[in-house]
Amino acid sequence: MGKKKLSSLEDLGGFVFSTNDNFEYENEENTATLPVNKQYLEAHFSNKGRGGKTVTVITGFEGSDADLKALGKMLKQKCGVGGSIKDGEIIIQGNYRDKIMEILKKDGYNIKRVGG
Q: Per CATH, the architecture of 31-113 is what?
């Protein structure tokens, strides 16, 4: 494997180097979580790219990563299955789309079924 030669600071991929002791990195990401009744979530069913295993994918959550993880944890516990939270999506192992939609509607979320 050859090493890529760096020709400019942009090649470092956005690192910030500072000698200022009071420097604070500005986070451009929107971390304000929308209220439950303003959330518009989508429930997908998928088995592509997962070795044939079926999963339920919840997308559309707008808010902080901590709130997304808390919602994902609650859904996994109520369904009694495993899952993960990646790239702003909640992935629940198995086809629990109807059960998850029921749980989220009771909590006040706007959720719609997408696909099959």
A: 2-Layer Sandwich (3.30)
